[in-house]
Write a structure and sequence with these properties.
single chain, 182 residues, mainly alpha
């Protein structure tokens, strides 16, 4: 049952993540996460408050809809957050050809954060999966390049400010979301 819940919630988070990149207003919030220029174990926790609340609500509603018991939901969230933190580490390793297709590795996820790769193009990015790259493979968003691209957002290279410090990042994201000049 735990694996079934894990697969369903992971798929729902894949869909959620695709939506974060698809809608400009939502991308304005999610861009706080992508604007980090140096990946760390803590990059997964650098988010806009509203974006984080939406994700928590999404996960909880999916879990309630499929009947996940509380103790199993805790385990699902704990496992997902652990893998997410590792996948954001600033390290140059993956899990090998097969392993990177079974579980999101730091190399696989770095491509998602790569300037010019991870949030551009027709799908507005690639490698959206949290745990299982199978979702990216099924929906044509998997990118298995063995590169180590610089991270951030292209317009940062042109001087766009995403804020220095927590409150500045929160405020500028709200301004971008509502069409402000930030």
């Amino acid at each position: 049952a735990f694996l079934a819940y894990l697969l369903i919630i992971d798929f729902s988070v894949y869909v959620f993540h695709r939506l974060q990149h698809r809608f400009d207003w939502w991308w304005a919030l999610h861009a706080v996460h992508h604007s980090q220029r140096e990946m760390t174990l803590w990059t997964d926790d650098r988010n806009h408050i509203l974006d984080g609340l939406l994700l928590a609500l999404w996960e909880a509603l999916v879990a309630l809809a499929i009947g996940v018991p509380g103790e199993l939901f805790f385990g699902v969230v704990l496992l997902m957050r652990g893998v997410e933190s590792l996948s954001h580490a600033n390290v140059r390793f993956g899990f090998g050809w097969l392993g990177d297709r079974l579980l999101v590795s730091p190399r696989y996820h770095r491509i998602h954060h790569g300037i010019g790769v991870g949030h551009e193009g027709a799908a507005r990015g690639c490698n959206f999966a949290t745990l299982f790259p199978v979702w990216d493979m099924l929906f044509g968003t998997a990118h298995f390049e063995r590169a180590f691209p610089p991270t951030g957002i292209r317009d940062q290279l042109e001087g766009r400010d995403y804020g220095q410090g927590f409150w500045s990042q929160q405020w500028l994201a709200l301004r971008r979301m509502t069409g402000g000049a930030a």
